Amino acid sequence: MNNTYKSAGVDKEEGYKTVDKIKSAVAETHNKNVLNNLGSFGAFYEIGGYKNPVLVSGTDGVGTKLKIALDTKKYDSIGVDCFAMCANDILCHGAKPLFFLDYLACGKLDADVAAEIVLGMVNACKDNECALIGGETAEMPGMYQPGDYDVAGFCVGIVEKDQIIDGSKIKTGDKIIALPSSGFHSNGFSLVRKIFPNFEEEFEGKPLYETLLVPTKLYYKDVFKLKENVEISGIAHITGGGLIENVPRIIPNGLCAKIDTSKIQIPNVMLELEKRGNIERMEMFGTFNMGVGMVVVVDESLAEKALSLIEDAYLVGEIVENEEKIQLI
């Protein structure tokens, strides 16, 4: 028998099937700025209407949360996670997401699985008024086992140079506002899987995996509602490392984010993980978002207005003078 690419484990036809399944849905994310369709070697996006535009980009994956999706054969939310982890990062600088590209790698491609993952990205892109303009699906037998997938993404946004949010305007007395998370988002899942080995067990009346796979919350609409109505001094996306590692990234030297942990609304599933795993509270705060997906810093005089704009936002602290950039009390 002659050797073929298929005999080496790569099925090009399955790749074509994937494209067929996603092509029309992906096209629905496009706007007048997208100048070409899927199939080109590069994706074109025209920029207009800005005086002094700055491009802001971010790339990320979903980590071992993917393992839960693969084990339970629930693939629809993972694409949302991939997009959210990238888009939420660039939002921290006041950037509007323009376009997104994805990378999907696997041992043996299943067009239905790949399409379900990408369709999750499509839905997230639509929610964020962002175009999915390209991607890569890599079938790599020998690198990945059949049934294994890895997902990553890349998002580019835009902001006027004089509207960049970078934390430099944060000052003493500013208030810290929490925007709730939808759960674990896409961080800490190596520890989650260690403490919760049985994803099928019942938790709050449904299989645990349903709670674990709730997708990362998209903050585009909330952040831009705030940005249009109040001056934002700083925004931090609470990902791996939790509040302890992410908040200090936006705090100027000599200042400190003093956060009252008694005000934080910790999800029940995180409290259960803490209890079952006998995990210290500070370890939890240094690993998970603990119910806070983003923090927004605003002037004290603007805090009440900011809170009135976002239904579930709440105050968690203030900026004080201190050499430590964060204090959890």
TrEMBL record:
Keyword Methyltransferase present in the record's keywords: the answer is no
Domain PurM-like C-terminal, first and last residues per copy = 171-324
Q: Which CDD domains match?
A: PurM
Ordered alphabetically, the record's keywords are: ATP-binding, Cytoplasm, Ligase, Nucleotide-binding, Purine biosynthesis
Keyword Magnesium: yes or no?
no
| Involved pathway(s) | Purine metabolism; IMP biosynthesis via de novo pathway; 5-amino-1-(5-phospho-D-ribosyl)imidazole from N(2)-formyl-N(1)-(5-phospho-D-ribosyl)glycinamide: step 2/2
Pfam families named among the record's database cross-references: AIRS, AIRS_C
Q: Name one GO biological process term.
A: 'de novo' IMP biosynthetic process
| GO cellular component labels | cytosol
| Gene3D superfamilies with a match to the protein in the record | PurM-like C-terminal domain, PurM-like, N-terminal domain
Q: Provide the E.C. number(s) assigned to this enzyme.
A: 6.3.3.1
Q: Which residues form the PurM-like N-terminal domain?
A: 54-159
Cellular localization per UniProt: Cytoplasm
Q: Which reaction does it catalyse?
A: 2-formamido-N(1)-(5-O-phospho-beta-D-ribosyl)acetamidine + ATP = 5-amino-1-(5-phospho-beta-D-ribosyl)imidazole + ADP + phosphate + H(+)
Q: Which PANTHER family match?
A: TRIFUNCTIONAL PURINE BIOSYNTHETIC PROTEIN ADENOSINE-3, TRIFUNCTIONAL PURINE BIOSYNTHETIC PROTEIN ADENOSINE-3-RELATED
Protein name (Swiss-Prot/TrEMBL): Phosphoribosylformylglycinamidine cyclo-ligase
Q: Which gene encodes it?
A: purM
